[in-house]
Amino acid sequence: MTVTVSMHFVNELFKGLPNSSTSPTRYLERAGISPFLLSAPHGRVTVEQFAELYRGLVNELDDETPGFFSRPLRGGTLKLLCLSMLDAPNLQVALHRYTQFFRILLDDFGYVFTLEGDFARMALVEHAPLLGSRTLIHELMLKLFHGIASWMIARKIPPILMECAYPQPPYSADYLYFYPGTVRFEQPQTAIYIDRDFLDHPIRQTKKHLGAFLKRAPADWFYVSFADRLLTHRVREHLARHLTTSGTVHSVADALHMSPRTLARHLKREGTHFQAVKDEYRRDVAIQALTCSEKPLISIAEALSFEDLACFSRAFKTWTGNSPAAYRKARTAGNAL
């Protein structure tokens, strides 16, 4: 999975945590994240690194929502939640159980599930001020719902609309991959809308599938490709297969059976443009290679279709605020500690 996330998710994860003898630096190093990224402009980590960090905090604190709420959700809570949903006759009944589960467990937070015309709406409700980072909690708890719902019916459920009860964050370009669909900020409630027809789908998963699902959490919830619905995702998938041989706007448009102008128009409608999609893909592949492999910098540059190492270094610094050499050096230094 060559997807990265903003350091926002890492920095905000440490807010609300109880005082501990374990410093944030040690948590980061255990997850393979260099502490220098905490203050790096535009720093990013792989989804796997963030998931490893999240799991480390969960295990250390015995709280599956680490520091989010006034009451910790002890280890095994998510497993019990899923078990309570597995024998539901369809997704609608399962989601009712989902909301009831959190109503029983938490006093300061919950979900409200409603039907509105052709849509089903799951909203977040705060009954008291949240202990952790409010924006991060909203982001992750909505992803939790969406990830579990999609897994339950073994179908990718495309979000139709996401409403966010917070201002548009500087890293909102990530939402095109994490919350594919229309996104509106500064709304009265944080909520996600899905097609109502999905509610009739039967539950496809069983207990024997649950262990693998939980082991991968939360990595599998961050990015799911909707290439059948979003042109941005189709472009990214094409680049993943053909970057070195078919990575120009004209060649991609031709491969997708449209003109460059049509490609540009559709991408603009999704809130992006071709060069941004290409740069985001190359940035993510570069970060993955720098943090998870020993590939020489020149080899990474060539694989990403840069003319030379200098061009790659300039682009990478524009994307992340640091040179590729700095990323690799920091990782090596962190591993040596």
General description of the model:
The chain has 337 residues and is α+β, with helices and mostly antiparallel strands. It contains 16 helices and seven strands. It has helices spanning 7-13, 24-30, 47-61, 77-86, 91-105, 134-153, 175-178, 207-216, 219-222, 231-242, 249-255, 260-269, 274-292, 297-303, 309-320, 324-336, and strands at residues 4-6, 44-46, 109-116, 119-126, 161-163, 182-184, 191-195. The strands form two sheets. The chain has a five-stranded mixed sheet with strand order 3-4-7-5-6. A two-stranded antiparallel sheet has the order 1-2.
List the helices and strands and how they pair.
Elements (H helix, E strand, L loop, with lengths): L3 E3 H7 L10 H7 L13 E3 H15 L15 H10 L4 H15 L3 E8 L2 E8 L7 H20 L7 E3 L11 H4 L3 E3 L6 E5 L11 H10 L2 H4 L8 H12 L6 H7 L4 H10 L4 H19 L4 H7 L5 H12 L3 H13 L1
Parallel strand pairs: 5-6
Antiparallel strand pairs: 1-2, 3-4, 4-7, 5-7
Key descriptive features of the protein:
337 residues, alpha+beta, Arc Repressor Mutant, subunit A, 3 domains, 5-stranded mixed β-sheet, 51% helix, globular, transcription cis-regulatory region binding, transcription regulation
